[in-house]
């Protein structure tokens, strides 16, 4: 991946870099490599800013999206869904990987899938503990370009990146920082991104 230079109106979105998607019940291909690449990417930016280990790296906010399900979520097989139980609120599986956790700030953490009856792949409408959505916070911060990373390419990354693009932002997906369910699905999604005007680097 090319090093991208931060600009004042860019933000980084980290989608579902949570243990269940890395080494847990829904462990995804490429997830460990994606975490390592993301850590390197953030550290390179942090090295240039005075306040490392901070959610705002020299004016470049790091926004986390977290799948955050109740134990009886309708996306789980036992409750009629298609997925194994994952990212249950309060469990290790729902925690952000420790390699990047130091960059997470509560106000910049957006939870989704909290309602048992609704599947929610997109993080765009995820909300922080104060009830603000990612959509709202991107707008308040006057962000123009959003760099998107995370897991899984074909589900949450796809829906999040596309919603952000539809809302009028420039979207850049960092392909080394993605984990996925299926290699072909991953590749097809990257092609779809390009055809929708989402840059993949
Ligand atoms: C996701 C499956 C179920 C994702 C979330 O983050 O891509 N996938 N819940
Ligand atoms: Zn989920």
Topology:
Elements: E1 10-15, H1 19-22, H2 31-48, E2 56-57, E3 60-67, H3 98-101, E4 109-112, H4 134-140, E5 145-151, H5 153-166, E6 170-179, H6 183-195, E7 199-200
Parallel strand pairs: 1-3, 1-5, 3-4, 5-6, 6-7
Antiparallel strand pairs: 2-3
Helix pairs in contact: 5-6
The site of zinc ion (ZN) has 6 residues, from loops.
Protein model, in words:
The protein has 201 residues and is an alpha/beta fold. It is 30% helix and 19% strand. It has helices at residues 19-22, 31-48, 98-101, 134-140, 153-166, 183-195, and strands at residues 10-15, 56-57, 60-67, 109-112, 145-151, 170-179, 199-200. Strands 1, 2, 3, 4, 5, 6 and 7 form a seven-stranded mixed sheet that branches.
In short:
By secondary structure, the chain is an alpha/beta fold. 30% of the residues lie in helices and 19% in strands. Helix 6 (183-195) links the parallel strand 6 and strand 7.
List keywords for this structure.
binds zinc ion; alpha/beta; 19% strand; binds pyrazine-2-carboxylic acid; 201 residues
* Spans of at least 5 consecutive residues with low confidence: none
Radius of gyration: 16 Å
Largest sheet: 7 strands, mixed
Fraction in helix? 25-40%
The total beta strand count reads: 7
Number of helices: 6
Order of helices and strands: EHHEEHEHEHEHE
- Cofactors and ligands present? pyrazine-2-carboxylic acid, zinc ion
- Could you give the distance between the termini? 6 Å
Query: What is the general shape?
Result: globular
Classification by helices and strands:
alpha/beta
């Amino acid at each position: 991946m090319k090093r991208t230079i931060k600009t004042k109106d860019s933000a980084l979105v980290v989608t579902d870099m949570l243990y269940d998607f890395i080494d847990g019940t829904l462990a995804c291909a490429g997830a460990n490599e994606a975490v390592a690449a993301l850590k390197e990417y953030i550290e390179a930016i942090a090295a240039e800013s005075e306040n490392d280990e901070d959610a705002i790296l020299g004016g470049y906010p790091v926004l986390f999206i977290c799948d955050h399900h109740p134990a009886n979520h309708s996306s789980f097989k036992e409750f009629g869904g298609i997925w194994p139980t994952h990212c249950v609120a309060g469990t290790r599986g729902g925690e952000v990987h420790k390699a990047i956790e130091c960059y997470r700030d509560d106000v910049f953490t957006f939870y989704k899938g909290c309602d048992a009856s609704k599947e929610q792949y997109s993080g765009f409408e995820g909300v922080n503990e104060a009830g603000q959505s990612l959509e709202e916070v991107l707008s308040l911060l006057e962000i123009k370009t959003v760099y998107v990373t995370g897991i899984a390419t074909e589900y949450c990354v796809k829906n999040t990146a596309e919603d952000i693009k539809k809302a009028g932002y420039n979207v850049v997906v960092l392909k080394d920082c993605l984990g996925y369910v299926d290699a072909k699905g991953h590749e097809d999604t990257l092609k779809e991104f390009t055809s929708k005007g989402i840059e993949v680097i």
